[in-house]
Automatic annotation (TrEMBL):
Annotated ranges, domain Sec23/Sec24 trunk: 170-413
Name by which UniProt lists this protein: SEC24 homolog C, COPII coat complex component
Subcellular location field: Cytoplasm, Cytosol; Cytoplasmic vesicle, COPII-coated vesicle membrane; Endoplasmic reticulum membrane
Gene3D superfamilies, A to Z: beta-sandwich domain of Sec23/24, Sec23/Sec24 helical domain, Severin, von Willebrand factor, type A domain, Zn-finger domain of Sec23/24
Entry keyword set: Cytoplasmic vesicle, Protein transport, Transport
Residue ranges of every copy of the Sec23/Sec24 beta-sandwich domain listed in the record: 419-502
Membrane topology value: Peripheral membrane protein
Example GO BP: intracellular protein transport
InterPro entries assigned to the protein according to its UniProt record, in alphabetical order: ADF-H/Gelsolin-like_dom_sf, Beta-sandwich_Sec23_24, Gelsolin-like_dom, Gelsolin-like_dom_sf, Sec23/24_helical_dom, Sec23/24_helical_dom_sf, Sec23/24_trunk_dom, SEC23_SEC24_subfamily
Amino acid sequence: KIQVIEDDKAKTNEPFVTGVRGQAPPLVTTSFHVRDQGNASPRFVRCTAYNMPCTADMAKQSQVPLAAVIKPLATLPPDENPPYMVDHGEGGPIRCNRCKAYMCPYMQFIEGGRRFQCSFCNCVTDVPPHYFQHLDHTGKRVDCYDRPELSLGSYEFLATVDYCKNNKLPQPPAFIFLIDVSYNAVKSGMVSIVCHELKSLLDHLPRENPEVDSVVRVGFVTYNKVLHFYNVKASLAQPQMLVVSDVSDMFVPLLDGFLVNVNESRQVIESLLDQIPEMFADTRETETVFGPVIQAGLEALKAADCAGKLFVFHTSLPIAEAPGKLKNREDKKLIGTDKEKSLFQPQVGFYNNLAKECVAQGCCVDLFLFPNQYVDVATLGVVPVSTGGSVYKYTYFQAQTDQERFLNDLRRDLQKHVGFDAVMRVRTSTGIRATDFFGSFYMSNTTDVELAGLDCDKAITVEFKHDDKLSEETGALMQCAVLYTSCSGQRRLRIHNMAVNCCSQLADLYRNCETDTIINYFSKYAFRGVLSNPTKAVRDTLVNQCAQILACYRKNCASPSSAGQLILPECMKLLPVYLNCVLKSDVLLPGADVSLDDRAYLKQLISCMDVADTHVFFYPRLLPVMKLESGSLPVAVRNSEERLSKGGVYLMETGLHLFLWVGASVQQELLLNLFGTPSFSQIDSSMINLPVLDNPFSQRLREIIDSFRAQRSRYMKLVVVKQEDRTELIFRHFLVEDKSASGGASYVDFLCHMHKEIRQLLS
């Protein structure tokens, strides 16, 4: 496993150039530079197979899922150009008359450049006079390299008013902060932390141009059993509170002064944020509502006729009398039975309907949860997940240990690149079509992926099926188009194009797959499956499909001399080890200490992860950090207890957590450099940050931790694990090659099981 990753790093020293059709990119664990020459960068699109089978029969025989993981607004490294903006004038972007695909490098210009043939549906369309250009002797337009849409895989079009809701240009979006001020929220310190942080954070609202102030307007609501709206109009000396106590019929009690410009109303807002923690300091109200809170934000956006985002800070199961009221249904007895699936389904239909309304308005919901007990994440998460939002969970939130993680998450969430009121469509060339989608979105028909919000961290996994034959010479094409409103209120289309090869030989298919992307697809497919099937059935289906993939290879592509051996294709060497990690994940095989809320939370989290995220989530990175050099990372070791030496210190990254495991007999010098104490027993395992010590070792390790955190969309809290300490149980859970406490197989045992399954299929 580690060898495969290291080999890939070693052979990647050139930039990855996207112009070659069907070329698989370097692995997500390799750092590389991308040059767009006509196909979308792997940072935007990764495929399970870069050689697609020509026929449905061949695809069925191999069982390799045909899918792409698309991250439309992905952040690029500073040395790569963001997609160029193209303006085709008031007629809007040039498109195929029949299938409506957008102008791209695959279109063929004919008749001296007066018409073009669409490579998706073969229809011929006239070139409008203003877009006409002569062709060179090869049939290419002479301005080909001056136009992003003719030479690049990814670019943006400026959208015209025809692409806007109700045919009018959009208003800039608004952000509304809705803060639970019930007893638990105040007591845990959450309310005062949020209010304090917002004072400085409102200077960092998203903007296109760092020189110019953000045009995003803001509004504030607090709530427990009733809702308090605040008028923060610039002309007021003090903010005014308006209470809505009839939560069964939610309305916004003020039109003017609720959504405001931060700079104009700064003093009133600061005064409000100072007052909220004082106002509710002595509250005795323990009950909360939830449905009306989202309704309130939605109604405010409707009244302002704009899209936007609700930031909801919430603590408890909403049991107060109101629409969307919930009861505690956590029942450990159902785990592992046929009824277990009901626990992943929303408890009431109310939130599905509310989600639909939110999507229609472009209202995206981000939910920050601070639970001390069951809050029914499966139900509370419905609106965030359907609107392209995020759920963050801080169980047993304590100010001194969790504040840093929460604030880093909030800062990033508020500032990140985001689009609103988005619709994504994936077009394909004749022969295949997009049939299934996984992620955080809403679909009211079979083709349009509707996203009230879409941010730079969200990925959508798309599955393709054959509806005809593909040919080896033309390959297969896909075009992902996302129509969205930018944070400055501009309507845009972002286009990503991808061409892959097609093959009639199974050997060619197995030569050009990407296991990390296959696992991304399998995990999303399986985690969605728990809504309608018992977890055991979901696990069995996965094992069976994986066995079929490998048996097909064994039968059709491996040399006959190797009978009785387990033969894996080069690019799928890691399929069994990764698949085993998915099978024994908390969602599919929970230990006794894993709550239902944890499982629902992870299920929602995985649904919008990209390939790099799922990779580290299922197979964490484990680095020995006894010797550190500047500029390079130590080579990782396999995730197994037998790889840990008593005299060693290891850093583990899971994408959600960081662990620093310290062996019981580490040399004193190393302990001094790291913790400032020579004695193992004196290391304080409750520390959440390493001490800042003035030595190269301490500096380098802290640098590595910072760089790991910078790469992930969620802040990873550091846990120091001393060998034989009780925290070691949590740490062991992530040593995924070992047998798990919940009964999950070790990698070696699973490999034997897999081998047996394959032999059975072959006989």
